[in-house]
Specification:
The protein contains 11 helices and 11 strands. The chain is of the alpha/beta class. The chain has 2 domains: about 10-125 and about 305-340, ATPase, nucleotide binding domain (Nucleotidyltransferase, domain 5); about 130-300, ATPase, nucleotide binding domain (Nucleotidyltransferase, domain 5), CATH 3.30.420. The strands form 2 sheets. The protein has a 6-stranded mixed sheet, sandwiched between helices. Strand 6 (about 135-140) and strand 7 (about 145-150) form a beta hairpin. The longest helix has 27 residues, at about 240-265.
Amino acid sequence: MKPPASTTILGIETSCDETAAAVLDGEGHVLANVISSQQTVHERFGGVVPELASRAHIQNVDHVTRQALDAAGLTWQDLGAIAVTQGPGLAGALLVGISYAKSLAYALGIPLVGVSHLEGHIASAWIDRPSFPRTCVVLIASGGHTHLFHATEHGGFHLMGRTIDDAAGEAFDKGAQMLGLGYPGGPLIDAAARKGSPAAVRFPRSRVRTGQLDFSFSGLKTALLYHLQRMDQEAIVRQQADLAAGYQEAIVDVLVRQTFAAVRQAGVSALAVVGGVSANSRLRARLTERAAGEGIELGLPALSYCTDNAAMIAAAGQRALEQGRLASFECEAMPNYALPASSGGETMRRRS
């Protein structure tokens, strides 16, 4: 079943702890983007509890989807295709979204597209800027991923670098816990750091020998832990803002250094930075300054498209439809899914 060229598409995202649904028209304009957060469910545990996330998705997915349709002013019959996150993510959480999307697509007799969560994050760079160059370097920085890709015009993704241990977003979350800031860590460290000096406390910047463009953040977390162990609680509270600023600066320094090294290596003039960490105000400022200085066109999604959302899944689904990549009703959740096979067989291949 081949969808028409201009297809209104419903996107569904349940890979972790956000239940989200969005509707895009055939031109890629966002008609609705609804997100139900589970922050209050998980914050007392200091992180996402998979079983609780799955239960919340079951409770919320139909309501959130109907909200998106209502906000778009559409009915079920107005949809031309459904896109859903197939992975990576939490197995149980993914299964909720996939099962729901399958049921809808079957009942409505419309195509189903399974997309990668990473593919969705990449697609977010073009939601508000469809003319942004397709040939570029893409940094995906989130709670579960820190990857550098060389994206090509025809949809290929060459893996250039990735974290060898913890993702940047995880480093923010764990650092926030150690500093007593709470969960989720990224926004809390960002807010605290604005009140401190990034030069007050110096933390190490990692360099990975095994891969020129790879990342590592586990050593930074350890450095923060050891630093705090040498302080009493009163001093930690007193210096909390400076500690947050110094810790954040170490993460941002590495992200900026490796990303612009990838831009030089790829020989491109455009850079997209996506994922939850791309909402960090210090990272956005540093990237903007560096890109302007080097004449690089920078693509940063609107804040509403940085964290997990369904608009990016619908946008990736439209791209998949253009490439003829449809899913069968036998498709399954893929917790370790990376990126789909694309033109030229270039998926996830590290450049030598």
